[in-house]
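Annotated sample (chain length 113).
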Amino acid sequence: VQLQASGGGLVQPGGSLRLSCAVSATIFRRNNMGWYRQAPGKQRELVASITTGGNTNYADSVKGRFTISRDNAKNTVYLQMNSLRSEDTAVYYCNVFPSSSSWGQGTQVTVSS
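Output written by the structure step:
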């Protein structure tokens, strides 16, 4: 598998979810990684990125609420999402950063009461 995101679901406002992305080893080891999202009717946007060395950056809208991490032994990237809001509702994707044209299957996150 090249990029396979999982862990989405339905959660109430204020709740938490943890997304996982299994990445092919050859891609994972050589690349900075990112989590992206696309809400209905909107363009896909970068949510968070992490370098091969572990440095992270976040979109202003998720700073202090989301945490990106990577497990080099498992070739997996995670996105811990806390204090979720309705505006976080979107399909979430992982990809290299900057993104390539090879988008894997995303995972739906719905924040609703």
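Annotation: The chain is about 5% helix and 45% strand.
Annotation: Residues 91 and 108 are 4 Å apart (CA to CA).
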